[in-house]
Amino acid sequence: MKVLKAKEMAFADENTINLTGIPSLVLMENAGRTSAEIILNRYKDKKSFVVVAGSGNNGGDGLVIARYLLRKGKDVKVFILADSRSKLSADNLKNLEVFETFGGSVFLIGKDKLAKLRNAVKEVDVVVDAIFGTGFKPPVKGYREKAIEIINRYAKYVVAVDIPSGLSTDTGKIEGSHTKAEVTVTFAFPKLAHILFPACEYCGDVYVIDISIDESYLKEIHRYILTPENIILPERKKNSHKYTYGHVLVVGGSKGKTGAVIMASKSATAAGSGLTTAVVPSSLDYIFETSLIEEMSIPVDDKDGFFGKKAKKQILDIVKKGKFTSIVAGMGMSVSEYTIDVVEGLLRTKLPLVLDADGINNLVLIEGFKEKLKRRKPDTVLTPHVGEMARLTGLSTKEISENMEEIAKEFAKETQTYVVLKSSRTVIATPEGKVYYSIRGNEGMATAGTGDVLAGILGTLVYRLGVEEGVKTGVYIHGLSGDLAVLETGVESMKATDLIRYIPEAYKRISEEKNKKHTGFYIKLG
């Protein structure tokens, strides 16, 4: 499913009307009718509604909703934030007149009539916010800001039409006043504000409804949200053996940081690798021998619990002689002259490579690392958090946090790598310029080791599914595992190893979801 910005949605909307030939009133009718269906289903026991509408087409959507609520026997009042009908858009005015024909009550209110709105909002069960749509640029000013404050203060439940009024469609930033919705019903596609923090926290449950927008006008948009429908699951064949499903080589670990490699190795196995082998400093091998049951370990040259001088050559010999299908490197590795050598050597291997954590911290110390990444023939996946992305790019963490999509996409294209940029939302960028957002995961996953689990999952799936599909599915599996685990542990006590336990259940849930036949005209995100 694509995720749009305001201009992209406006472009598709205008061309659907002007070129495809679907009249704007038909699109508005579709939007209002299905929104009302969701509202009636969600609030089936509620009897009274107030629709607070703006003067534009978002207000027109609200008027269609009001009509359908009225026809279902609900008590509905509409308040339009305009002091004259002459200020209403043509489609807004048309639906106002239709609503009145059905016996609906409409009040046009200017800045001196907000008391009437306040009294109505206090009394009703549900308020429908149809003031501003996705084309609005904050901040809200004047008496409309006061109207929003009334809604936030007195409304029991708020349903936002397309987007909570006052939010910026294209970012997660908060710029001034905005409504705080329990439910948002948006049209055709989710927008960035629906999925990015902190704005998404004010959208509540987001429903995306089909209103007959012609998607052919969005072929140049390659920004997507990950859902079960657009990821692929690996398959097992009856006539197969362990080597059919790949052999992941996990490289990392150092004194005090053995858990990172253990978690990456166990998650690679849980994700479906046929075999998993960890390459570790020799003095620590006894820890891995006692901690890894299904997985194997190979000790290499060690200096005081860290990779030693001979480790690079030994690891490259292991890769050359073994039947490995992908490499995952960096977890708990630490940074030294010898680990820099190890990472530089891994760049010269002919296998898909996932670089995580200290793999990235060592990478940035290699002279000309961007060019080396670009020249690398097999695919490379980088899994930085915001701090590591700052080291890769030289930008500040603030710049990266505020522009994750653009920075990840630019770096992926520049270095011809796959970038998995991790934060409260994960952004995947491909060398071709495609971007995927994952909205799976939760605050309980903000704990040590969850990145190591992701790296192990990716190590398996980049071989099983191919790199792009493997990264998409791996990120989704990782987030869903966290969402399943938190139901058992709660957010405070979740550990990274809890995610590993729930990888099998995540696979099962996705398979069940993919087998469902979705009928109707809307889906719920998340």
Describe the protein's architecture and organization.
- By secondary structure, the protein is of the alpha/beta class.
- It folds into 2 domains: 6-15 and 25-219, YjeF N-terminal domain (Rossmann fold); 240-515, Ribokinase (UDP-N-acetylmuramoyl-L-alanine:D-glutamate ligase, 3-Layer(aba) Sandwich).
- 43% of the residues lie in helices and 17% in strands.
- The strands form 3 sheets. It has a 10-stranded mixed beta sheet, sandwiched between helices. An 8-stranded mixed beta sheet has the order 3-2-1-4-5-6-7-20, with helices on both faces. Strands 12-13 form a two-stranded antiparallel sheet.
- The two termini are 12 Å apart.
What's the topology here?
Layout: H1 6-20, H2 24-42, E1 48-53, H3 57-71, E2 75-80, H4 90-101, E3 105-108, H5 114-123, E4 126-130, H6 143-154, E5 157-161, E6 183-187, H7 192-195, E7 205-209, E8 223-225, E9 247-251, H8 258-270, E10 275-281, H9 285-291, E11 296-300, E12 302-303, E13 306-307, H10 311-321, E14 326-329, H11 337-346, E15 353-356, H12 358-363, H13 369-375, E16 380-383, H14 386-393, H15 397-402, H16 404-415, E17 418-421, E18 426-429, E19 435-438, H17 450-464, H18 467-489, H19 496-515, E20 522-524
Parallel strand pairs: 1-2, 1-4, 2-3, 4-5, 5-6, 6-7, 8-19, 9-10, 9-14, 10-11, 14-15, 15-16, 16-17
Antiparallel strand pairs: 7-20, 12-13, 17-18, 18-19
Helix pairs in contact: 2-3, 3-4, 5-6, 8-17, 8-19, 10-11, 17-18, 17-19, 18-19
